[in-house]
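Readers of this paper often ask what the protein records in our data store actually look like. Such a record has a labelled line for the sequence and another for the backbone structure tokens. Nothing more is needed to write down the fold, since each code stands for a local backbone conformation. The remainder of this section carries one protein's record, kept here as part of the documentation.
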Amino acid sequence: MKVFQFSVVVVRLAGLILFLSGLLRLLTAIAASWGKVGLVYWQTFLLTVVLPPVILALAGLIVLLLARPIGRFLARGLESAETD
């Protein structure tokens, strides 16, 4: 049971780091380009500056939501490696 709890905590920490780093990258990218993006370049701006951090933040949320199943999967693998 301790392996399961530890793996869930590690997965939650990884998801939180992914989510927060995505938000931080998004905020810094928008702040750095504030007022510098012309109307012609909005599509390029959204695809290159906004979309990657948003995908990173969403991946972090998915990992946070699936922390228990991922942790259970990791714990099974770790426990089977201990008994061999």
About this structure: The longest helix spans residues 2-32. The two ends are 18 Å apart (CA to CA).
